[in-house]
Amino acid sequence: MITLALSKGRIFDDTLPLLAAAGIEVLDDPEKSRKLILATNRPGLRVVLVRASDVPTYVQHGGADLGVAGLDVLLEHAAQPGGGGPLYRPLDLGIARCRMSVATRRDFDYASAVRQGSRIRVATKYTHAAREHFAAKGVHVDLIKLYGSMELAPLTGLADAIVDLVSTGSTLKANDLVEVERILDVSARLVVNPASLKLQREPLRALIDGFEAAVAARAAGAAA
Ligand code: ADP
Ligand code: MG
Asked: Which of 8, 93, 98, 149 maximizes ligand 1 atoms within 8 Å of its Cβ, making it the mutation to test the pocket?
């Protein structure tokens, strides 16, 4: 049995068409059922639903043979204690595309704060990526770890800036925040447990090839 770890929402929704292109159908709808283990039309393949940030943990420790996780999640995971374990990353799926950016209140002058070498209070879920980014720029920051609703931090005075994911920018706009710096382009990646790849080489290889073909076909369709 092969176990594929996905997170509910965007990652699940964007992975479904890639699976479908490979002839794989998930037989339960996670929005309608409370099941965490979903059967597929392939008797040898099941899907488990985990938190987005838990996908690398499941795959690294063999709770799942492979999974789909955003680059944002993979980078934070790798920087955690124990997060440096082996994870084979064969493929950029090109789904759940967004960018990691710095945003501030409209009335905060980020450029001059940076120029003047001020200490900037930055709230984020992505403390590792943020620390690296500001260290590389030589900007002094106090990082405040949050787990969600980052947009609130500058509005309440908790922080001067946030590091968060942006796609259309409408969430920032709705909260009167502006994107002042791009840090990283983000998309979801396929990750595979290396031991699984040895032990279940044939079926896993076939599945990875299926994903690869689906990604290539979609890219060709988009170019046409
Ligand atoms: P969660 O809120 O549990 O982190 P999401 O579905 O919001 O779950 O995010 C899952 C992944 O989708 C993120 O790790 C990121 O890679 C990607 N993602 C997050 N926000 C966006 C966005 N606005 N647009 C596109 N992809 C996003
Ligand atoms: Mg989210």
From this structure: 98
